[in-house]
Amino acid sequence: MRDVYVAGIGITTFTRLEYPLVEIASYASMMALKDAGVTEVDQIYVANMGAPRVNHQTALASAVADSLSLLPAGAAAIENGPASGAAAIKAGFQAVASGMDDVVLVTGVERMREVNNLEATDFVATLTHPLTEYIYGVTLPAHAAMFARLYMEKYGVTERHLAMVGVKNQNAALNNVWAHLQQGITLEGILDSPEAMTNNPYVAEPLRFFDACPVSDGGAAIILVSKEKAQELGRPMIRLSGLGQATDTHAVFEREEPTDLLAVRKAAKDAYEMSGLSPEEIDVAELHDAFTILEIAESEEVGFFPKGEGHIALEKGETALGGKIPINVGGGLKGRGHPVGATGVAQAWEIVTQLRGDGEKRQVEGAKTGLTLNFGGFGNNVVCLTFVRED
Amino acid sequence: MAREIYAYKCRLCGTMHYPFRMLCKGCKQNDFFEFDTVPLPKTGKLLTFTTVYNLPAQYEVATLGLGIVELENGMRMLGQLEIEEPEIGMAVKGSVEVVRKETYDDYYGMVFTAA
Ligand SMILES: [Zn+2]
Prior knowledge:
heterodimer, A: Peroxisomal Thiolase, Chain A, domain 1, two-stranded antiparallel sheet, 15 helices, 38% helix, B: mainly beta, 2 domains, 5-stranded mixed beta barrel, 3-stranded antiparallel sheet, binds zinc ion
């Protein structure tokens, strides 16, 4: 297997975007191509979840290839729910590692704001088990809420801990010009003040409005290349060093221990093994905080903290910028936004930015290693990636 | 006759499934849909729950109670709750009712109340 490097990255602002889906994908891709200094690619993978349903467009990768004048490169779209982004990176990795391709463009994109919020929520809910979950009206916020309640009962996590994740990540987004939410929040405003229940109502008890990520449009792209190509292009040598992917039961209620996220655990274990890294050696991480409870649970399952102690580490500031393992310093899904298909690629974008030392106000000092965790379904399809800076 | 929701029991190895699997998760040998249907029990205890406020358009109610129930045979299922103040561990009993209405179809599922 050949080593695989990230030679270029690009991103659009995550917000409500009044541009066609293909243009959003193309804009992020153009930035990545320019950053890498390439005008031709062998292969294109486009990560996207909703184009056929939300944007009435199929065969998205063909459209992106043509829009970018990258013909006759191979192109295919990858739909893997909220883990589409990292799954597309995996496909790109395999293409380069196998020796089939030298330069691969991976673009993630979503334009969810073309429909209203309830339709967007319903569209995401279609990833649940059709006969035993979806028909009951289960949404992703409902799944996260039932999971959060169990976590509270078992480990002593409180609504305050959840709010602390929200405050940390939404305020971190203020240091990221591409992030969707550009408004600072405080525990006082969303939890303690008399107006808190109005500012921050329940969406699915015990989760409130500020426990969930916003519905966003946006695109992110990276260029994966062989070692020879990376050396020739002369960008900082950031190696995609580890990769793991795992699945779990479709129906969440079937899991033996419902507070375990076994697919997260397995994906991370495989990524560590492949890269030869341990959790203690990771300098900066991007976890999939679509809901605040997930950042706490994932920080345990990827091995940063023992099970049930993620919220304690959070309290101590260990997951904030300057802490032991800074998590979601660019805002995470909560602050940056969550254009579903783009998220896994945007996480890689942030880690590469960090390892290049380009994080400016949110830079984790001296970061040489990074990890991303892209959480699909409600934990039934998870991809973990590790990145290493080589000098 | 009261409506039922069924689990699927593998005729080869006896493993129970809910939801249904095309291949048995126990023996992985069952290639020919050799499953017997077994009605799920209607009583159990509440494992976790939520009240949802932002509902899909088909629901003409302000809030929806949802929960995961551990049934008396140890299997679990998700259902709607019609319980004023749900609590983890409380005893519940279910009945099969319409849980989702769409233009041409009604979908049936389990609705739990306090036992
Ligand atoms: Zn069997």
